[in-house]
Known about the structure:
Blueprint: H1 2-9, H2 19-29, H3 37-46, H4 50-64, H5 70-77, H6 83-93, H7 95-100, H8 103-117, H9 123-126
Amino acid sequence: MLFHVIIHGVVWNPVPPIRWIADAATLINSADFTIDWQRLVNLARKHHLSLRLKTGLQYLHDRFHLSIPPAVMKTVINLPVSYLEKIEYRFMTNSRENESNSPYAAFCCHLCRFRRLNSGRGIIQRLHFPDLYNGD
């Protein structure tokens, strides 16, 4: 849940989604359950969202002094960030590209997302053609 809150919270929106901060603080400070910090880091690695997680956790730590373990902060800060992830992040967090609603910005966002979600898959696996015989 914390991963989801941070990843979707740090993207630019004309109406700032500040509620992600309260949601994240509630999850981190909750006594009802513990956060599996290693799983959080692994999700960022697996889905190539290290830069967004790092930005969100640093913001929560620096601005709101939430108790994020120092080892986790160090690990997240040192996660590798691909060039493609940096491009996607730029378009998803920059208000100028989003305000203009340019087809170029939308195309770049979708292309980066497609490449990120299909990382490690061959071209045939990336293209999904419905199986007309199985109702897919």
